[in-house]
Amino acid sequence: MTNSKRKNTWFKYCMVASGLALGGCQNTMLFSDNDPIETNQPSELKLTPIPEEVISQPTEEEVAATKPVELTPQEQDDLWVRIRQQLHFEVPDVPRVQSQRNWYASHPEYLDRVAKRPEPYLHLIVEELEKRDMPVDLALLPIVESAFDPFAYSHGSASGVWQFIPGTARQYGLDINWWYDGRRDVFAATHAALDYLQALHRYFDGNWMHALAAYNSGEGRVAAAIRKNERLNKPTDFWNLSLPRETRAYVPKLLALAEILANSEEYGIAWYPIENQPKLEVVETPAQIDLALAADMADMPLDSLHQYNSGYNRWATAPNGPHRLLLPHQNAEKFKQALSETEPKDWLSWTRHEVKSGESLLTISSKYNTSVDVIQQVNDISSHIIRAGEHLLVPVATLNIDNYKLSQDQRREDRQDQKRQGKRLEHVVQSGDTLWDLSRAYSVNLRDLARWNSMAPGDYLRPGQELVVWTEAEPSSAVQSGINSIMRNIRYRVRTGDSLARIADKFNVTIRQIEQWNNIQRNRYLQPGQMLKLKVNVTEVSS
What we know:
Layout: H1 3-22, H2 60-66, H3 79-84, H4 95-105, H5 108-116, H6 122-131, H7 141-146, H8 166-171, H9 186-203, H10 208-217, H11 219-231, H12 245-262, H13 264-267, E1 280-285, H14 291-298, H15 302-308, E2 323-328, H16 329-340, E3 349-354, H17 361-367, H18 372-378, E4 391-396, H19 408-417, E5 423-428, H20 435-441, H21 446-452, E6 466-471, E7 483-485, E8 487-493, H22 500-506, H23 511-518, E9 531-537
Antiparallel strand pairs: 1-2, 3-4, 5-6, 5-7, 8-9
Helix pairs in contact: 4-12, 6-9, 9-10, 10-11, 10-12, 14-15, 14-16
């Protein structure tokens, strides 16, 4: 008997039986063939047993259909839930973790802010962790490292969401040059960081706590602390190692975040929801491209494109491709279509520069916000020797350089323009200057001086570089020659009859400086209403 026939038979029997229960005054009863039938006479009711084959058991599929569906982590709507369901690390209830957990729990506005930042990138990080079968807890590590800020730059020259220092970055395949810094490229830096963490995990025989401590302070230091405890017959787990203060708090911060994510309701923390879908698509470009042009081709704002591709230091990608751009899906399709309809020669703008007396490749490259090697490559020059009257082909930005707000120079200028305590001085770097020497000469803190100029204390200075100093003290005589006192970045609106020479004389600057600051040439006429950016000593401006 088929299941459907069994069900029909059982249904008929149930209908008859319900009729007995509900219709007591009716004489419709079901008896066996051998029972005597007496109408309107009381008698003992005997029901015929139901044959075994009539009663069917529900199938496994039918039973499964009645159970609530449990979604896998990958099927969840929210990425934070996907992470929460796969948390791996055991979180000990120790004072160091408690302290960090209490801080995070008492600053929900901070967690809300840092939980929004990774929205474009978090899916690719989680996917890569799962692909490598690594603890998904590590997706929280950039909160500890950089608060998920791609442009974060620490006092130790570490950069990007994963906070690589230059040496380790290059060791794990990240390029750092004038055009590009792979530490700030979230896609490239994520792969490098996970490579590094896996290497540390192997080095410390599968101990993730030791690996994480080493990611912060170096494997040599952690290994030395382990050996020391072994000599002293002390435990060698992370919690008993003698490590720098920063590292002793570093691992507890990650564990505290994992604990709060695992028990969000208990701590009253609502994590900013992030859709469990990829936000960005990788598109390769075979040659150098102006970022403003790329944004136009992708039909999106320049700042948004640069934010997703924060590894690019300048107004364009590096000269030698291929390059990678991360773009939202709808913009990626438009960009790929535009790439297929254009030629690489159209992806940059060019100018023909006539070399003037006293100019060098360095001054020309600075003027056009490019590099010496690019000018050499484009013009097939093997040396640094150029002669007045020669013409050079130079790539130039499509827009005024001020429009590339997330380029390295613009971000530095924004930092330098921030108002601080004291009197603002602008120091022009002389040969042999160091940040340490200048901090002593101006009586300011070394780290403050570096921070004012978006640098790290150990960064090298190049002659001609402009630094901002905020101080109440009088500088020593040793640095007087490098001071442009009370410098200000100002905007000047061109008036009828203005010329570069007249403006230069008014603000006590040179025509060449105005050209460099505004990426313009003196053989082009100024237009009334045009805005110029000037760096002037306000104490020396003509009335």
